[in-house]
Structure formats: C-alpha cells, structure tokens
C-alpha cells in the first residue's frame, strides 16, 4: 500500500518522547502554527499496544520513543499518516505493518551518532578503569589503591567493534587515540583507518573489549549468547550501547557471576525499562538507562528533526534518507 494522502493541517500529534518541548520554537510551536494539536504522553515505562492505540485516537502523526507499534495499532488509527521515531532504532515498530497501512515511519539518522560514540567510549573506560567500583569504595570510607580493585589498561589492548555503521565508525575514530588494536566484524567496514575486518568468532577470540553497535533484527537477536561469551575469556569486557536484545542477558549475568568474563557495561536491556535484577547485584557491571544517545544537544537535534519530518510527511514531502519503510512511498503524491 502507498502512503496515505497528505493530511489537512489539523488534528493531533501524539508525542511520547519525554524530552519534547511543547512550547519550543522549533518543535511544539511549529506544530501549533501548522494547525496541529500537541498531545503529550511521555513514555515513562512499559506500554501495551492497546495503550498506544488508545492514545492515538484522532491522531494524524506521532513523535515517539520506543513505544510498540504493531499491526493492531495501525489498524486502530486510520487517520495516522506518520510515525516519527526520535532515534534510529525501529525494532519496536512493525515496518511491514506500517507500510501495509500506508503510514510513513521516519528516524533521525546522524543526530545522536557522536553522542552515542562518546558514551560507548566512556563505558569502555569506566569498565576498564573500574570507575564505578572505586566510587562505591570511596563512599564506603575505603582507600583501596591496589589489591582486588586494581584497574586495567585500555592502551595496548585489542578492542573489537561488532557493527561498523556510523556509530561504530565514530567509536573506532575515538579509540585510535588510545593506542589500541582495533578489529571489526561487519559486512562492509568502510571508512575506518587501520581496522582489520574479521569474522565474529575471531573477533571474540582476540578482543579484550567488545563493543556492540548493531541494529536489532532477527539476524542479530541474541548474537552474543553463552557460546560467544565462552569464547571471550576471563579477561574480556563486553559493552552494549546498541540494543539489549543482541545479548542473552541470563547467560551474560551467569558468566559475570562466575568470572568467566571480567566485566560488562550496559546502556540497553531487552525489556526496558526493566533491568534484570542479577545485573544490579553484580559489582562488575556498569548500568545506564539507555541514555547513550542523549545529551542536551542531541535531544534538541532529534526532536527538531522529528518535528520537521512530521510536517514534511503531512505536506506530502517525505524526508529523503530518513524514511525507514521507503516502500510506502511508491506511488505516493509528491
């Protein structure tokens, strides 16, 4: 099915992204000036598809977080024309169902690339230098400068990057200044100097630190499981700032508890906002709330871009390079 006809300049825009500025000159005010009503419903926890469907009543557009959009949601919202995802992940949206319903789905490519790369490197350094463990130790009144909390070195180590798209390449660029050996597992690892492309098994065998930068699709779901963790060895660190579903969380928690791998740094989880309790009880895990791509600057850029996408699609001008289901545009009005 082709995209639904451009909507009139009226109706509601459901906004579930918690960082959206309803009175911002480049966000909410722009929507209001176009005759659209902003309906704020920030995603603060897990939501069902029934809840999303109810929130979409009368909506022509949505600016969303990681809310679930399946076929039933699109069927319940016949007036919906565009879902503008704040971020680049679309694993929570059934793109085929959106295409069948004639709904354009957009993302905000590039808007948080550098921020996510910063966070990934911070997580790597935090785990290698055991920052969180030392912070907790000092707060307990200890002064442990050696012994069981002695940190490790990043320089001279081997870092494996799994997925070398825009974010993976940005991480690689940063790491070249740390004197590490970089290896990459990606079908097309172009754009990175001094990188050795390898298969995943070889990367896991060689790497002291593994950083994940893959989209969550059927082919990548659970790509790091018990067998892959066993290849890493007791001196390895796993960092995930991509999608929680890439990792078998139960296997990872067990490997960390047994000392089969050294540490992990996790910004994402399979069932957000729920975090497996086993992780919270382990001292060798750094946990952050899927905040890797978020900063004052990146949030402003993403929400402004999502606003522009909504207005463009409703006016019959879908944004080039940002449509996640381009098949919906075939035969659409220009």
How would you describe what is shown here?
With 334 residues, the protein is α/β, with parallel strands linked by helices. Helices cover 32% and strands 15% of the residues. The protein has twelve helices and twelve strands. The chain has helices at residues 28-33, 49-55, 71-76, 95-101, 113-128, 131-139, 166-175, 200-206, 226-232, 249-258, 277-280, 296-314; strands at 11-15, 36-40, 59-64, 82-85, 104-106, 158-162, 181-185, 196-197, 209-212, 237-240, 263-266, 285-287. The chain has a seven-stranded parallel sheet with strand order 8-7-6-9-10-11-12, sandwiched between helices. Helix 3 (71-76) links the parallel strand 3 (59-64) and strand 4. It is elongated and about 65 Å long. The two termini are 16 Å apart.
Question: Could you give a short description of this structure?
Answer:
This protein has 334 residues and is of the alpha/beta class. Helices cover 32% and strands 15% of the residues. The protein has helices at 28-33, 49-55, 71-76, 95-101, 113-128, 131-139, 166-175, 200-206, 226-232, 249-258, 277-280, 296-314, and strands spanning 11-15, 36-40, 59-64, 82-85, 104-106, 158-162, 181-185, 196-197, 209-212, 237-240, 263-266, 285-287.
